[in-house]
Structures are given as structure tokens and as C-alpha cells.
Specification:
It contains ten helices and ten strands. Helix 1 links the parallel strand 1 and strand 2. The protein is of the alpha/beta class and 326 residues long. The N terminus and C terminus are likely disordered. It starts with 8 loop residues before the first strand and ends in an 8-residue tail after the last strand.
Length: 326
Amino acid sequence: MEWIGDDDTFRIFISHKHEDHGVARALKDALGSLSGEYAIEAFVSGSDIPAGADWNSLLRAELGRSHMLILLFTNPSRNWDWCLYEAGLFTRFDREQARAVVCLYDPGSSPPSPLKGLQGVPVRERKIETFLARLCKTTWEVADDWKRGPLNAGIEPKAIASAAQTICDSFQHGTYAYHPCHRVVLDLTAVGKIGDRIPEEAHVVEGPGATSAFTLSIFGVAEGARERTWGDLLEGVEGREADWRRQLDEVFCAALREELFEPVTAPLRSWQQNRDYRPILYRIERAREQVDEAKAADEVGEKDESGQLLEVVIVFEGSVGPEKER
């Protein structure tokens, strides 16, 4: 997108979810405080549109005159179609490189897939400080349509640190005010005989539709090349001897026997997120022929010993807890 206009204002378009309006306004104020040789002006999508205005035309006009778009990606489990639409209008994804889109995202997660090739900045104070310093001092490196010099070459480090803290504090509050469910998918096809608990050697299935990076952050681990097991997740939260694990295993065994069971009441404590989660056994999947064998065995009064399963899905339901420490 070619830069439109010849004034001394660097314009930033802030794309965000309605629930994150407070975060967007705090980001706008923090960016404005960094103005120097050139003014920094932020437009908050969905907020800075006058009543009665043609919002679609104004939206396109603001995108057209902006030098940068910042997407606040606070929570992967939300629907981000509209924000990605705004980013698509701004970048026109036919370009091989579009450095002027910046995604600020939860450090326990990752940027949305369509934006993984663009600039992603995890919301940690040091990372935000680095991004803001580049924005002020080497502006053309982060916004390739800016044709002038640095926005504020002589900015003081304390001013950058203050703006970064404001952004992190507001983002943190916005992120952790939302309590999603998380899903852990375990592959049991390589497990031998099933005992009296969910096998620790069960492989964690990662990726879209399975176990997300955001869910892994509950257990203090991140996605990567290394394969992870259920035992690795338990170790990450010191859960091998925890009450919630014992109750979950009891539910698992009862479900295999097709018996009724009480829900898990003991919480999993995620120290990384300073929040409690309640485990729920969501689904057990086994091979079709094993189901038929089990039915046949039941008809003749025999106990089914086949045991091998295909997949187990566990949901971790977030409960309201204290705000995450800063």
C-alpha cells in the first residue's frame, strides 16, 4: 500500500476486538506519548468513528492513509475474522513482504496463522520496549511506507519503558479477564495395555483442532519440534500426585467401564496464568472393531480386555481467579 499524504504525522490503525476496547485506548495513549520530530496519531477501529458516518468508507480511508496497522491479538479462542479482514485490506496479502502490520499477542500463545509471516511481538515489557525503540528511532524498518526520518530519534529510554509498561499492563488485564476452555488431545494408538489411569506415555496431539500453544501454556510448556506426552504436561504443573489427576483418572476408568461417574471437583492450578482450571473428560474414542468386541463380550458375560484406545480428549474449564501478577 503506497503512502498517502505529505504531512508530518505518522498514523497507526489499531485493530481490536470490542472486548479489548480499553486495551486499544491505552495503546493509543501510549503511542501518542512517544511523539517527537513527527507526531504519532492512532486511530482505534470501532471507536474513532463519528455517529452517522459511513463507517465502511471511513474505515477504508483510515486504512489507506495509515502507515502501520497494529492488531491486538489477545486471545486465540475468539473469532478474529473481522480484525483479519482489516489487516487484509491494509496489506493486500499479494505482497511478499508487508512489514507495516504488527501483531501484539499473548506471550503464552502465537500470532494468528494468516499473520505468522509478518511482525509478531509478544507482550512482554522487554519485547515491547524493543519494538517501540525501533518505531521511534528506525521507523522505516518497521513501517516500509514511511518515507521520512525517525519519529523521535532522541527519545529517552524511560519514556519508552513507561509506554511499554502501560501497554503490557492494559493488555494483561484484557487478556486475563477472559476465561476460555482449553482442550488437550491425547493419542493412545502407540500405548500398550491401558491400566487404571490415563497413560503418561500418551502423545499430545498439537495443532489446529487439537492442543493449541495457548493450552500448552497452562502447563508451562510451549509448542515446538519436540513431541510431548501427557506425563510432560503433568510434570509441568506438578500434577502427578495431585487430587485433580486422581479424580480424572477415576472418571477415565469409569467411562471405560461405561459407568456413571461424578465430575472432577479438584482444580488444576496453573502457576503460569495464576488461575484454576477444572478438568473434564470430554471424549474417548476407540476403534470400531473394539467396540463390537466389547459388546459381544458383554452379551456372553465376559470381561472385555482389549483396552487399546485411539484418542482421549480432556477439556480444562477456566474458573474466575485473581488477576495475574504483573
